[in-house]
């Protein structure tokens, strides 16, 4: 794959990701997702309208129609594609949590899930080859549709206990990060009779409030507001609102793995059993919480499309990752920030404040580290480190995971950066730190060995 990364095509607008690329890729998208109509939506970035126009022109030049849904959360577009029968695919123009100068093209299959790697590589092939456009009398047309946001909200409300949430009379502070949730999430709160204040609630693609990644550092304003004690729950989305993170009533940011564990447990309690699907990098807290409620965990490689597809295969009740990407099988098989918001309100209404609920979730210490590593070398690291592993249970589902009785370590190449990531978890901080250090040394040694060999080779060639 040259163009598609883990979350579609990403790049700086008008540099790598310019209108020419978008037009040519629009044609390739029509080839793979056609015959159409193909739905398109965008986040609030200032380059998004240009890219919607260019991708749409490419699609229409292939004879396929385009349905323009305007500015919407990614999961709202996915719901539209899934629900509207004759729509054969979707395109989301967003760079999610990346800085304002970036944008992206993300493609959606007819069933509303993110396109598979096979579909994406077919698009790249058509992009390379170039597509023959249709005759003048077959060019597609473009129709703008409003109301996809309301259909999405209705669908969310049909999946939670609305009277229970209304009765709880909750107070919420919502941070929309000036992104795609600015209309939908306030509307969901309003319909659930939740009293709320919104920060960064204006659509603004420069993200003036804070960067659109909902990390603890970026949510200082929300945490300060929550620390006033006036609210029951703090909620924040990323730029395209497929993710949702939470701050408790005392102003404490809830780490994503603890939230994933809690919601996994609630899902298993609701269904009285069932399978939760998550990536191999997830905390043991998830497995502990799920098993305590009588469910089981199924592990996949890291990445929400992989988790979503596995949920469909094995009928998983819930899935997700620790970055706030949460997938509710009853709603749709994709990360869904709006649904997560409503489900957490439902949990608070039923089980009480988030901080009290989180006391049920065991505490683990998770160390996250990374070694700089050239992309060309990444594939050689795991076999080398594996040869040095003397104890523990080895799993190569994604990178190398070694499980011990008192914790685990995961080594995996980053899909987006020249880094090799190291995760180490244990209930005992000293154990987690010791293993992180040991495995970092093994990765560094494997990386150095490769680099040294490469240098010697170059030298010989030079002296010939
Ligand atoms: Mg996102």
Under CATH at level 1, the class of the largest domain stands as: Alpha Beta
Segments where pLDDT lies below 50 for 5+ residues? 452-464
Instruction: Tell me the quaternary state.
Output: single chain
Shape: globular
For this structure, what is the CATH homologous superfamily of the largest domain? Answer: Alpha-D-Glucose-1,6-Bisphosphate, subunit A, domain 3
The molecules bound to the chains, other than polymers, are: magnesium ion
Structural class: alpha/beta
Strand content: 15-25%
Please give the count of helices: 15
- Domain module count: 3
Which percent bin holds the helix content?
40-55%
Notes on the protein architecture:
The chain is of the alpha/beta class and 464 residues long. It folds into 3 domains: 9-148, Alpha-D-Glucose-1,6-Bisphosphate, Chain A, domain 3, CATH 3.40.120.10; 167-358, Alpha-D-Glucose-1,6-Bisphosphate, subunit A, domain 3 (Alpha-D-Glucose-1,6-Bisphosphate, Chain A, domain 3), CATH 3.40.120; 365-463, Alpha-D-phosphohexomutase, C-terminal domain (TATA-Binding Protein). It has helices spanning 19-33, 48-60, 74-83, 117-129, 148-157, 162-168, 184-191, 220-227, 256-271, 284-292, 304-314, 337-351, 354-358, 375-388, 429-463, and strands at residues 9-12, 38-42, 66-71, 89-93, 102-108, 142-144, 171-175, 195-199, 233-237, 244-247, 275-279, 296-300, 318-320, 326-328, 365-372, 393-395, 400-404, 407-413, 419-426. The strands form 4 sheets. The chain has a 6-stranded mixed β-sheet, with helices on both faces. The structure holds magnesium ion.
């Amino acid at each position: 794959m040259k163009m598609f990364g883990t979350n579609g095509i990403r790049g700086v607008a008008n540099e790598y990701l310019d209108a020419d690329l978008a037009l040519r890729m629009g044609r390739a998208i029509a080839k793979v997702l056609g015959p159409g109509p193909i739905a398109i939506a965008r986040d609030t970035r200032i380059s998004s309208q240009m890219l919607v126009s260019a991708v749409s022109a490419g699609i229409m030049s292939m004879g396929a129609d385009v349905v323009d849904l305007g500015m919407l959360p990614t999961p709202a577009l996915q719901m539209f594609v899934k629900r509207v029968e004759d729509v054969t695919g979707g395109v989301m123009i967003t760079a999610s949590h990346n800085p304002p100068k970036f944008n992206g093209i993300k493609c959606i299959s007819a069933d509303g899930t993110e396109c598979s790697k096979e579909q994406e590589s077919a698009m790249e092939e058509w992009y390379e080859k170039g597509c023959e456009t249709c005759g003048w009398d077959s060019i597609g047309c473009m129709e703008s549709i409003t109301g996809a946001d309301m259909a999405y909200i209705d669908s969310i409300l049909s999946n939670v206990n609305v009277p229970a949430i209304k009765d709880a009379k909750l107070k919420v502070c919502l941070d929309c990060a000036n992104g795609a949730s600015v209309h939908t999430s306030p509307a969901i709160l309003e319909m659930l009779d939740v009293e709320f204040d919104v920060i960064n609630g204006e659509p603004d693609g420069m993200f003036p409030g804070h960067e659109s990644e909902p990390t603890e550092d970026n949510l200082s304003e929300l945490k300060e507001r929550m620390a006033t004690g006036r609210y029951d729950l703090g909620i924040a989305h990323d730029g395209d609102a497929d993710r949702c993170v939470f701050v408790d009533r005392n102003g404490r940011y809830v780490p994503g793995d603890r939230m994933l564990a809690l919601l996994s447990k609630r899902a298993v309690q609701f269904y009285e059993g069932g399978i939760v699907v998550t990536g191999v990098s997830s905390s043991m807290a998830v497995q502990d919480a799920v098993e305590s409620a009588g469910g089981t965990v199924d592990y996949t490689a890291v990445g929400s499309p992989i988790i979503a597809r596995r949920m469909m295969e094995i009928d998983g009740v819930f899935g997700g990752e620790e970055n706030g990407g949460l997938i509710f099988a009853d709603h749709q098989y994709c990360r869904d920030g709006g649904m997560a918001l409503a489900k957490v309100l439902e949990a608070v209404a039923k089980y009480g404040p988030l901080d009290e609920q989180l006391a049920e979730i065991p505490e683990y210490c998770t160390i996250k580290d990374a070694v700089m590593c050239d992309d060309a070398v990444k594939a050689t690291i795991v076999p080398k480190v594996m040869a040095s592993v003397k104890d523990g249970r080895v799993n190569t589902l994604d990178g190398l995971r070694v499980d011990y009785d008192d914790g685990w370590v995961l080594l995996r190449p980053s899909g987006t950066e020249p880094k090799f990531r190291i995760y180490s978890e244990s209930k005992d901080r000293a154990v987690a730190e010791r293993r992180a250090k040991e495995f970092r040394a093994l990765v560094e040694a494997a990386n150095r060995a490769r680099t040294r060999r490469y240098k010697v080779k170059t030298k010989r060639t030079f002296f010939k």
